[in-house]
Design goal:
13 helices; alpha+beta; 5 strands; five-stranded antiparallel β-sheet; 434 Repressor (Amino-terminal Domain); elongated; about 45% helix; 2 domains; about 300 residues; about 10% strand; Beta-Lactamase
């Protein structure tokens, strides 16, 4: 096997373990020692040699054709988004120099928009670090604030877990979106720090991360249980912020005329803008927001 990262091989290995012989028409005969499909079975179904598949999975061959990858995607039962992710992994080239930590700065116009929106709104980067948040977002959850990490809190903060009555489904989707968002950019120090910390602190995150599930970020309904407002049914919209390194504007809004709309209006009436609700963008204020580990002083 080769030295160094092998994201393509890791992904193929993880996904073949999730496919059962019955799903691809292979009779289950006798006792199987492996979880999911054997390498030889994947190779046979994809129309390639077992030795070639082994080289791909071990990282000794990193230049498969698109046709081979699409055949493997079919055998591994990948949907369109997961297939696109597989192709991206194959096209990625390892960096020769280590990455340096990168400061994230919210554009000034977006920062102003977040502060004035009459809806819960935050800006997060590709690692789910919160770079900007308005008062209503923080009223919805104190952890929706600058310096927090949404993924970290979702897995490790009891109050944040209680906010999500569908916590297991929420965490499953969050990890799949996170992996797709990061893509091949896995040598970033922030990624290494976050995934390493979560893998050690949360067995559930570790299990979900090992599945290599992929889900494209898109709008979706959200069910929340607020300690004061009670049950809320909101719609979450995620909008890409152009000209940034993967920043997203996340807005939560209720359907008009619903009970959730009334409850959100009550929360808004008592919300106050915290002093650090928005990280300043380029301009006279300067600066930006840096992620802080839980417990780190500002």
């Amino acid at each position: 096997m080769t030295d160094g990262p092998n994201p393509l091989g890791d992904y193929m290995r993880a996904r073949r373990r999730l496919v059962t012989p019955e799903q691809v028409g292979i009779p289950a005969v006798g006792t199987r020692r492996v979880q999911g499909l054997r390498r030889e079975e994947v190779a046979m179904l994809a129309g390639i040699s077992a030795d070639y598949y082994l080289r791909l999975e071990q990282g000794r061959d990193r230049n498969p054709s698109v046709q081979v990858l699409e055949s493997l995607a079919r055998v591994l039962r990948l949907d369109d988004d997961a297939t696109a992710y597989l192709l991206r992994l194959a096209a990625a080239r390892p960096r020769r120099r280590p990455r340096r930590p990168r400061e994230e700065t919210v554009p000034a116009g977006i920062a102003q928009l977040v502060a004035t929106l009459p809806l819960p709104a935050v800006v997060e980067d590709r690692y789910f670090d919160i770079l900007a948040a308005n008062a209503l977002a923080t009223a919805l959850s104190p952890r929706l604030a600058v310096g927090a990490n949404r993924l970290w809190d979702l897995f490790l903060d009891p109050a944040q877990q209680a906010l999500h009555p569908d916590w297991e489904e929420t965490t499953e989707g969050a990890v799949a979106v996170f992996r797709e968002s990061v893509g091949t950019d896995t040598d970033d120090p922030r990624f290494v720090e976050l995934v390493g910390g979560l893998s050690l602190a949360s067995p559930r995150f570790s299990r979900l991360w090992a599945r290599h599930d992929i889900k494209v970020c898109e709008g979706a309904p959200v069910r929340l249980t607020h300690p004061r407002a009670g049950d809320l049914r909101l719609n979450r919209e995620k909008l890409d912020i152009g000209g940034t390194a993967g920043q997203m504007l996340v807005v939560l809004h209720p359907d008009p005329g619903t009970d959730s709309a009334d409850k959100l209006a009550l929360l808004a009436s008592g919300a106050r803008t915290p002093a650090d609700a928005v990280s300043p963008g380029p301009g006279p204020s300067g600066g930006g927001a840096r992620w802080r580990a839980p417990g780190e002083r500002r």
